Amino acid sequence: MTTHVEKALLFRSLHVAGRPLLLSNAWDAASARIVEAAGASAIATTSAGVAWSLGAPDGDRLDRRLALDVVARVADAVDVPVSADIEAGYADDTDGVAQTVRAVLDARAVGVNLEDAHHGGPTPLRPLQEQAARISAARRAADESGIPLFINARIDTYLRSVGEPAVRLDETLARAAAYVEAGADGVFVPGLTDLSTIATLVEKAVVPVNVLAGPGAPDVAALAEQGIARISLGSSVAEAAYAVARWAALELLDSGTYTTLTNALDYSEVNELLANT
What we know:
Elements: H1 4-13, E1 21-23, H2 29-37, E2 43-44, H3 47-53, H4 64-77, E3 82-85, H5 94-106, E4 111-115, H6 128-145, E5 150-154, H7 165-182, E6 186-188, H8 195-204, E7 209-212, H9 220-225, E8 230-232, H10 236-254, H11 267-275
Parallel strand pairs: 1-8, 2-3, 3-4, 4-5, 5-6, 6-7, 7-8
Helix pairs in contact: 2-4, 4-5, 5-6, 6-7
C-alpha cells in the first residue's frame, strides 16, 4: 500500500514544466472516482463544487468541518494523490490556517490550494505580507507533520482584475516571489490566458506554474509549450454537470421529452465504480 509520504512525493513529481499535470476537478467521491477511472494521475477538488454540493455558496462561506469531510471521502474513494482546494484556509488568522492544513493531512490529502482573495474584505486581495504569513503557517504545519504537502499559492490578481492591466503582471510576480519565500511549492494564477504573459510568468517564477483552463483558453499543447506545469478545470466541470440538471428539468417540464439524458453514464457503470472503492 502506498504511504501518505509516498503519495505526497508522487504528487510533487507530477509537476513538470512542459508536461503539465492535468486536473479535471472533482467535488465528491463519485466525481473523483469517475475522473480517476478516466485515467487521471491525481485528483484535485474544487471548492466551489464542494460548497454547492453541500448547499453553500463559494467564497469562504462553507464550514471547514463539512469541507474537509468531503476531502476525506474523496481521498478514501481513489488511489491516486488528492489535492484539496481550501479557499483562503477556512480561517481568519494564521493559527486557523495551520489547523485547516493539519485537518487536510488527517484527511490523507497531499496538496492544497490556498488563495489570496479576501471575500468580504476591504480589498479584493489580502495584503501581500498577510497572505505570506498565512502560507508560512501552512508550511510549518505541514512540515511538523512530516508530510511534504504541496502548497499551491493561488494568486487572484487576474481573476479579480486587481490593479491596472499594465502593472498586473508585476503585482503577480511580486506576490509569487513572496509566497514562494514563505513556503509555497507552486503558484496558481487563474484568469490568466494570454500566452505571452504566461511565458513571462513561467520564466520569472522559480516554482511550477498552474493555470485555469476551459472554453476560450489555449489548449493543453499551447500551454505546455509555454512551460506550464499544471492545468486545472476548476469549477467548470461542476458547472457543466449542474447545467445538465437544469436542461433535463427544463426539457421534462416544457416538452415532456428526455433527450438531454441521452449521453448519461450507465447506472451500473457508476454503481460498479463506487462498489470497487
